[in-house]
Amino acid sequence: MAVPLPRPRRFDVYAATAGLLGGLLLWAIGLGVRPSDGPGVLFPGRWPLLVPLAVTAGCELLRRSAPRTGLLTGTAALAADTLTQGSLVTVIMYTDLMYAAVLYGPPSSARRIPWITGLLTVAGTILPYALWRVPEALLIGVAVGIVSFGPASTGLIVRNHREAADAARLRAEQTALLAETDRVQAVTAERSRMARELHDVIAGHLSAIAIHSTAALSLDDAATTRRALGVIRENSVEGLAEMRRLIGILRERGGDTEPAAAPTLEGLGALVDGARANGLDVSLEAAPGGPVPAPVGMAAYRIVQESLTNALKHASRGPVRVRLSRREDVLCVRVTSAYGDHDAPHVPGSGAGLVGMRERAALLRGTFAAGPEPTADGRIWAVRATLPLTEGDFA
User: Confidence class of residue 335 from pLDDT cuts 50, 70 and 90?
Assistant: First the structure.
């Protein structure tokens, strides 16, 4: 079954029409390449040259849709044209077919055609001169080069420039895509960081407010209510201050607006005091063994803060132990609380706290684990994190 040829492009139709009309015009005025009865003309007269002209014009319709077919057919038409009076328009259209075959054809054709035409040009220059020993014989090679090698090499140059431009455009698009991917990842990482900060900072204060407001509403005792309202006010003020600090981080630096300093291990004492004020029986044992890098200190502080918040929301009555120790180049954080069987937490949680603590440890290439542990006094809930202290581990 024959495969139909692709539909020609509009420009190719215009080129074919212009070539055919130009050839007919030259034919009408009797202008040919050589005399109609000159030497080498096997088909004398004016009419035979119209056949190669028409075939070559038809090949122009295939210059982009089927360039190799057009070139092969055009080569046969040019060979036939040399046996007639010849038409200059046929030769010109053939040079365009050669150019299009290299420019629009497959890569194999683009590589081979310039080599083939170059060899033909060299052969057309050397062989006639070797046979006839006259300078005029060199003109045959010049003609072959003008008709074949010139258009083929031009097509190859244009094709290489187009491929280089396409490759540069592709690289630019890939660079833009990578830049957009980096931007999205940076925004996502920043959102995750701010989500952890918001959760760690606000959750503890809101949990204390919820628990003490419940106590104030459920107990008909003025002293208890007053103490609960005091705790609520204290947590509200601290939560508002933390929110202002986070807003300062989000704003651009400049003017009188400067974000407050990030929390460090020096603030653990105040953090534990606040947890005691919220009703937890907390003890702190901190022996970091010297200064620690700022990212590690902040991560340890936030892990302890979230652990105390979870103990306030979920733990049974019992002691809460916070212990920081240094082992070689690792800061170890351990927070334990009573783990009893109760139906529901004091304040509902979303599970984002454990996710945030695990992310903080992972960002520093540390480890994190949380879960119940059996002890001689019963089960406890233990949060364990190891944070590398060397710069190379988290840079």
Answer: very high
Structure tokens at 155: 């097509």
Radius of gyration of the chain (CA): 44
Same domain membership, residue 389 and residue 274: yes
CB 166: neighbour CB atoms within 10 A? Answer: 10
Q: Look up residue 101 and give its amino acid.
A: A
SS3 of 306-366: the string is HHHHHHHHHCCCCEEEEEEEEECCEEEEEEEEECCCCCCCCCCCCCHHHHHHHHHHHHCCC
User: 42-67 pLDDT, tens per residue?
Assistant: 888 889 999 999 999 999 999 999 99
Question: pTM higher than 0.90, yes or no?
Answer: no
- Across the chain, where does the E strand assignment appear? 281-287, 319-327, 330-338, 367-375, 378-388
Of residues 309 and 347, which shows the higher confidence score?
Answer: 309
- In total, the chain counts a number of residues equal to 395
Interval 100-155: pLDDT, tens: 999 999 999 999 999 999 999 999 999 988 988 888 888 889 999 999 999 999 99
Give all strands of the β-sheet with 378-388 in edge-to-edge order. Answer: 281-287, 319-327, 330-338, 378-388, 367-375
Amino acid code (one letter) for 61? L
What does the alpha-carbon distance between residue 26 and residue 361 come to, in Å, rounded to a whole number?
Answer: 86
DSSP SS3 for 380 = strand
122 touches 103 (CB < 8 A): no
Whether 198 maps to a domain, the answer reads no
Q: How many domains does the chain have?
A: 2
Residue 326 lies inside a defined structural domain of this protein: yes
Find the range with the poorest average confidence among 73-77, 151-155, 169-173, 243-247: 243-247
Tokens of 228: 């609960």
Secondary structure string (H, E, C) spanning 102-133: HHHCCHHHHHHHHHHHHHHHHHHHHHHHHHHC
Question: Residue 274 sits in a domain of what CATH number?
Answer: 3.30.565.10
Query: Residue 249 domain-assigned?
Result: no
Q: Which domain holds residue 143?
A: 10-173
